[in-house]
């Protein structure tokens, strides 16, 4: 019996825990996770905005070294499940930082030391550098990360379902992919690869500079053929179509 309890505790420690409560229009989630000597505790309040109060603690007996050039490398982000489209924060874009290595930037995180972070996400995504639009309804992924100097992994995430009662200002990912496939040039690419019985898979879309970029790849014995379509995120008008031939060794980067 004691052995079973110990195994259960280890599983919970490795996988993290989530709890959920709701009060009126406000939903509260808690997320706890431990990995490689770091313990995350986060409270997420989902209402008009998404407010996150998080901390990460060095629970190991060792000092952890990190690079402070761009500030404490404790990252929190919210990404659309099927697209490279991130919720913006209430204070806008984070300051850019040159990733140049300097030994003077290395800092120590002592055992039991804790870093805290509070951040608020709006239900908006960046359409261009100057403009944001309402975030689409659907599944999102909130990710927490901490980058150590020796690249010891710390990464945790949890799913969020966000509904927006405002009219969408851009096409959904599914709409963009469907409209891309209606293009004659894209249809020809699909026909040629389907005739060869090549498996065709879609990739996460990218929202940038007022465009949806959607991509598909066909897998054959020695490599991968890709088609990349840039289209207006509102109207669906196609601006550019690109083709690539890649080796199978890069297939994992596309998935």
Structural description of this entry:
With 255 residues, this protein is an alpha+beta fold. The chain has helices at residues 2-15, 173-181, 184-195, 251-254; strands at residues 17-23, 26-35, 38-46, 50-58, 64-67, 74-80, 83-84, 87-89, 106-109, 114-126, 132-134, 138-146, 155-162, 200-202, 205-208, 211-219, 223-232, 238-247. The protein has four helices and 18 strands. The longest helix has 14 residues, at 2-15.
The description of the largest β-sheet is: 7 strands, antiparallel
Which overall shape is indicated by the principal axes computed on the Cα atoms? globular
| Proportion of residues in helical segments | 10-25%
The SS-based structural class is alpha+beta
Give the terminus-to-terminus CA distance: 42 Å
Portion of residues in beta strands equals: over 45%
Tally of separate helices: 4
Give the number of DSSP strands: 18
**H/E element string?**
HEEEEEEEEEEEEEHHEEEEEH
**Cα gyration radius (Å):** 22 Å
Average per-residue pLDDT, rounded, comes to 88
Low-confidence stretches: 1-15
Concise summary:
The protein has 255 residues and is an alpha+beta fold. Helix content is 15%, strand content 49%.
Task: Give a quick set of tags describing it.
6-stranded mixed sheet; alpha+beta; 255 residues; disordered N terminus; 4 helices; 7-stranded antiparallel sheet; single chain
Indicate the topology.
Layout: H1 2-15, E1 17-23, E2 26-35, E3 38-46, E4 50-58, E5 64-67, E6 74-80, E7 83-84, E8 87-89, E9 106-109, E10 114-126, E11 132-134, E12 138-146, E13 155-162, H2 173-181, H3 184-195, E14 200-202, E15 205-208, E16 211-219, E17 223-232, E18 238-247, H4 251-254
């Amino acid at each position: 019996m004691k052995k079973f309890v110990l195994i259960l505790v280890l599983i919970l420690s490795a996988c993290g825990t989530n709890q959920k409560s709701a009060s009126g229009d406000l939903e509260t989630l808690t997320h706890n996770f431990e990995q490689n000597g770091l313990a995350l505790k986060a409270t997420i309040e989902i209402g008009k905005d998404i407010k996150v109060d998080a901390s990460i603690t060095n629970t190991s007996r060792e000092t952890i070294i990190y690079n402070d050039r761009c500030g404490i490398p404790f990252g929190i982000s919210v990404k659309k499940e099927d697209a490279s489209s991130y919720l913006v924060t209430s204070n806008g874009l984070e300051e850019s930082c040159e990733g140049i290595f300097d030994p003077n930037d290395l800092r120590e995180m002592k055992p039991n030391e804790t870093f805290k972070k509070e951040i608020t996400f709006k239900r908006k995504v960046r359409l261009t550098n100057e403009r944001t639009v309402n975030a689409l309804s659907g599944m999102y992924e909130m990710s927490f990360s901490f980058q150590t100097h020796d690249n010891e992994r710390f990464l945790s995430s949890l799913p969020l379902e966000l509904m927006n009662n405002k009219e969408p200002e851009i096409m959904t990912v599914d709409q963009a992919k469907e409209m891309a496939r209606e293009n004659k040039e894209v249809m020809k690419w699909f026909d040629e690869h389907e005739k060869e019985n090549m498996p065709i898979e879609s990739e996460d879309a990218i929202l940038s500079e007022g465009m949806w970029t959607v991509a598909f790849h066909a897998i054959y014995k020695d490599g991968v053929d890709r088609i990349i379509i840039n289209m207006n995120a509102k109207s669906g008008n196609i601006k550019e179509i690109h083709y690539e031939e890649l080796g199978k060794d890069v297939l994992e980067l596309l998935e």
